[in-house]
Amino acid sequence: MAHPVIHKAKLEAARERHCHHYANSKTKESKAANKFTKELLNTVTKALHCRDEDESKSESDLDDDSESDDDESNKLYDLPECLHVLKAIKDEMLETISDDSCKFIEGVLCNYVKSFPEDSSPGDISIIETSIAKVQEILNWTIHAQDQILNFCGVSPEWHAANSVTRFLRTVLAYLEDIQCLLFSGGVCELTVAHSMGEMMYQKGIKI
């Protein structure tokens, strides 16, 4: 009666050894495959990186001269020149926007409303976009001059004067972008509701 039990035990032991051997073999194959995959990915990544570096190097060589020319033309050489540029910016700002940001925004809104056609289709959104582009352009000039003033004399009264212009322009830009956002998200209907409820940024007097 003991023979069947022994035979069965031997079969189970042999089956366990076989399963263990198969599992180890499968694990080794999986590790080898993963290692090969990682090496392949590293090789491809290095090749692509080298190609990108070569392409960017050739492009940068072509652009170096033009970029250096632009930097040279935009460079301000001393504090008096910075202040002269800042005065020109303020004159441009007063001519384009005036010193009343809310009045300027109301004017842009009125021009937009006047552009509504008789068939109730949307007005000319380019009126808003053109105003945004113009204010952004003046702001870019101001930031450049302000940075140069900081380089020449640090956080000085001259820098604070430039900073007040920068903050004013940022605020006007935010008011215009608020109108644009309302038009893009809900159209004229949402813009009308926000205006009637006094919820627009310029109506609340929010400053940047």
Would you give an account of this structure?
By secondary structure, the protein is mainly α. 85% of the residues lie in helices and 0% in strands. It is built from 6 helices and no strands. The chain is elongated and about 55 Å long. The N and C termini lie far apart (95 Å). The mean pLDDT is 76.
H/E element string? Answer: HHHHHH
What is the terminal separation in angstroms? 95 Å
What is the typical, i.e. mean, pLDDT? 76
Helix content: over 70%
Total DSSP helices: 6
Question: What labels describe this entry?
Answer:
208 residues, 85% helix
Secondary structure elements and pairings:
Blueprint: H1 2-74, H2 79-96, H3 101-114, H4 126-153, H5 157-196, H6 201-204
Helix pairs in contact: 2-4, 2-5, 3-5, 4-5
Task: Give a brief outline of the structure.
With 208 residues, the chain is mostly helical.
